[in-house]
Amino acid sequence: MENAFYRQAVVLEKAGVDLFSIETMIDIEEALLAVKAIRNISEKPIIANMTYSQTGKGYYTVMGNSLAECTQKFLDAGADIIGTNCNLDSADLHELAEELLTLTTTPISIKPNAGQPVLNGDTVSYGQSADEFVQGMVNINKLGIQILGGCCGTTPAYIKLLSDQLKE
Question: What is the pTM of this model?
Answer without folding.
Answer: 0.93
